[in-house]
Amino acid sequence: LTSYSPSPASRRDSAAAIRNMIPAMSKANLRENIYTIPNILTASRLVAAPFIGYCILHDYHAMALGLFAYAGITDALDGWIARRWNLKTVVGTVIDPMADKTLMTVLTVALAMKGALPLWLAVIILGRDVGLAISAIYYRWISLPPPKTFARYWDFSLPSAEVRPTQISKYNTALQLGLMGLTTLAPVIPAVDMSTPLGVLQYVVATTTIWSGASYVYSKDAVKILTPQEVEEKKAEEKRAEDKKTDPR
């Protein structure tokens, strides 16, 4: 029997091959910490949305208004915390508007079913959101780092694309929430006639909804697909923020 000992040249080639594989493997497995306070607050809004719809449909107006107020407070709070303590994540840019849209969809459907919101306005709001949802699914798939699998598609700790709301979309979201809040408030204080302000606000929201939908189509900055280098930079920035929290010096 003879023993095999690889030549120095063979060992060098093997070592070089391993070194070349490491960057590719690290890029494929880049992940970010998604269990942050802002993301948890955002997730709580997602959970609260169906309960708000249930309360509206069953005429629990005060409870619906209270949950709606909670959703509005957490919406403002999670963004402030993310900016204040540098806890922004790529998944946050996805689930934050998702939570807003889920809440808006539930409110729109529930209020339309109760006759508190005109059907034509509900169709405009929901039609825009369906179009944006289809676009989000498409961009998530084409920007997902390989290998593209169903399991990895739903693993939002894998950054792939950033959704950046347009300016008109931010105004539209505020106006829509204002309309839904006022419509939810109306049954709580029946002594106050809100028909005129609600009618005006409904037409304003219809206009901004159509405008904001078009802005996502024509704005080149609304959706950004991350390159491997940008993913690495985000990971490095996140690590620096973690190190700063553990060692403030």
From TrEMBL:
Residues 231-249 have a biased composition (Basic and acidic residues). Its main location: membrane. GO terms for biological process: cardiolipin biosynthetic process. The keyword Iron does not apply. Keywords: Lipid biosynthesis, Lipid metabolism, Membrane, Phospholipid biosynthesis, Phospholipid metabolism, Transferase, Transmembrane, Transmembrane helix. Pfam families: CDP-OH_P_transf (PF01066). It comes from the Eukaryota. Residues 229-249 are annotated as: Disordered. It is found in: Membrane. The chain crosses the membrane at residues 64-82, 102-126. GO terms for cellular component: membrane; mitochondrion. GO terms for molecular function: cardiolipin synthase (CMP-forming). It is a multi-pass membrane protein. PANTHER family: CARDIOLIPIN SYNTHASE (CMP-FORMING), CDP-DIACYLGLYCEROL--GLYCEROL-3-PHOSPHATE 3-PHOSPHATIDYLTRANSFERASE-RELATED. Belongs to the CDP-alcohol phosphatidyltransferase class-I family. This is CDP-alcohol phosphatidyltransferase-domain-containing protein.
